[in-house]
């Protein structure tokens, strides 16, 4: 039996003896202090912390309490890698029903400066026809970007109904101008270029072709218009038509490298619904590839950590509170800060925050309940000791409890020579075990209301040892 493994040393310390190893039995109030001592020096993991503590100490559900403490450690959550990330499934924008309805734009650079002073490239892509646009830039000052963006915007016969863009500060003038034109602005979450994936794919292709046209990006802007025309003349892998064909109906547009000038062109009627079906089918295949049914949605008001992209800082910062959410994007507000910023992040850059329970409040409630039980049992002349043990080691407390029970035994003549209590001669705590058994039996004889109170709290340190170490003697 478990009780046979318990032993009281000369200094009144209660130990558990297993395989010739003596482990000190620890009251609940000291568990957290011991875990702190072993974990917070180097913030080691659960298994290593448990193995080190279990060599010297014992308490019920030790591994569970160690695991919960480490899982809710703020340092470990912000400084250690997330080995089980909560990856959101891929979501897409609704497919437009025709060209000129929705575009996305972005910036490339800084690139190698050309002789004309160009450093950046403004790029844009039509989400239906896949037509590409590119303008060389000398800077990315906000007003200068707006003037260059107008060259793209006013180039087409219709204004788009929506524009997808980053929330970069240099785009502020463009955002204001689009709102004046009643064009919806769709902002991509920070550090998540996949939201504007069509433009990102075009950016990679454009840089690759510019590199092929010039040695080491020398005067790349001189070849920019030629590369854009060649891309828009090529058949797209998804739509099965070139962007020029979708917008103009011309089946074989003139390629930039074609030296033969055609006098007439073959025109067709482009079926936009067929093209939309092809685009939707490609999106379905792509979303299925990156689907994640295990993704756990975040709730409004939930505490989370946000990925930190700055070097020499913890990989995660926070906690933050979720104040707004969509399927895969969140808006976060930093806790305990008046006028704090709102951060927009993709769900892949968020980590669930495990908040530690406030143990001080639990202890306060426990002491309040003990006082109520003391008043309840005052008429029965049964003294209950409150759990005020912060400045006393638990070995002394256990010794005091044994002495207190000896006084109760002598004053009320609890020892009955004809008692049927059988002492276990092989037990290391034979005499004191009898005292513990008799104390528990007296408590069980109290009225029903008192028994309900006892089932909810630990009324003294003596019962704490019994409740935690003598599993077969627990009071329900």
From TrEMBL:
One of its GO terms (biological process) is DNA integration. Residues 95-251 form the Integrase catalytic domain. GO terms for molecular function: nucleic acid binding. It comes from the Eukaryota. SUPFAM superfamilies: Ribonuclease H-like. PANTHER family: PROTEIN CBG26694, PROTEIN NYNRIN-LIKE. This is Gypsy retrotransposon integrase-like protein 1.
């Amino acid at each position: 039996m478990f009780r046979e493994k318990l032993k009281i040393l000369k200094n009144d310390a209660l130990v558990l003896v297993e395989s010739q190893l003596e482990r000190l039995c620890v009251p609940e109030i000291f568990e957290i202090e011991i875990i702190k001592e072993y974990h917070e020096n180097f913030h080691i993991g659960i298994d290593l912390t448990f193995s080190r503590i279990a060599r010297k100490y014992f308490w019920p559900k030790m591994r569970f309490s160690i695991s919960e403490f480490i899982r809710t450690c703020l340092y470990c959550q912000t400084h250690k890698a997330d080995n089980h990330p909560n990856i959101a499934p891929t979501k897409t924008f609704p497919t437009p029903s025709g060209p000129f309805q929705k575009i996305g734009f972005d910036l490339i650079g800084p690139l190698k400066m050309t002789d004309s002073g160009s450093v950046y490239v403004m790029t844009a892509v039509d989400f239906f026809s896949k037509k590409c646009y590119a303008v060389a830039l000398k800077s990315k000052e906000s007003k200068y970007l707006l003037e260059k963006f107008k060259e793209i915007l006013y180039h087409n016969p219709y204004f788009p109904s929506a524009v997808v863009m980053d929330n970069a500060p240099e785009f502020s003038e463009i955002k204001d101008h689009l709102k004046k034109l009643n064009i919806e602005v769709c902002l991509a979450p920070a550090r998540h270029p996949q939201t504007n994936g069509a433009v990102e794919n075009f950016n990679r292709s454009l840089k690759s072709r510019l590199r092929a046209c010039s040695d080491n990006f020398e005067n790349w802007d001189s070849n920019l218009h030629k590369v854009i025309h060649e891309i828009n003349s090529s058949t797209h892998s998804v739509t099965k038509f070139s962007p020029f064909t979708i917008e103009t109906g011309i089946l074989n547009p003139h390629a930039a490298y074609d030296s033969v000038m055609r006098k007439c062109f073959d025109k067709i009627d482009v079926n936009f619904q067929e093209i939309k079906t092809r685009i939707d089918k490609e999106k379905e295949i792509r979303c299925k590839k990156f689907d994640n049914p295990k993704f756990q949605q975040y709730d409004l008001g939930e505490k989370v950590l946000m990925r930190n992209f700055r070097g020499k800082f913890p990989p995660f910062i926070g906690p933050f509170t979720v104040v707004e959410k969509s399927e895969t994007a969140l808006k976060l507000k930093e806790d305990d800060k008046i006028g704090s910023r709102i951060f927009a992040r993709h769900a892949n850059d968020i980590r669930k925050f495990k908040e530690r329970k406030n143990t001080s409040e639990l202890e306060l409630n426990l002491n309040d309940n003990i006082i109520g039980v003391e008043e309840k049992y005052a008429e029965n002349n049964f003294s209950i000791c409150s759990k005020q043990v912060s400045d006393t080691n638990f070995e002394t407390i256990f010794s005091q409890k044994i002495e207190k029970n000896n006084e109760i035994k002598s004053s009320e003549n609890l020892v009955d020579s004809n008692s049927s209590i059988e002492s276990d001669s092989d037990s290391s705590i034979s005499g004191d075990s009898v005292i513990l058994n008799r104390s528990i039996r007296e408590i069980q004889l109290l009225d029903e209301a008192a028994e309900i109170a006892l089932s909810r709290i630990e009324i003294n340190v003596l019962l704490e040892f019994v409740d935690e170490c003598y599993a077969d003697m627990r009071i329900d």
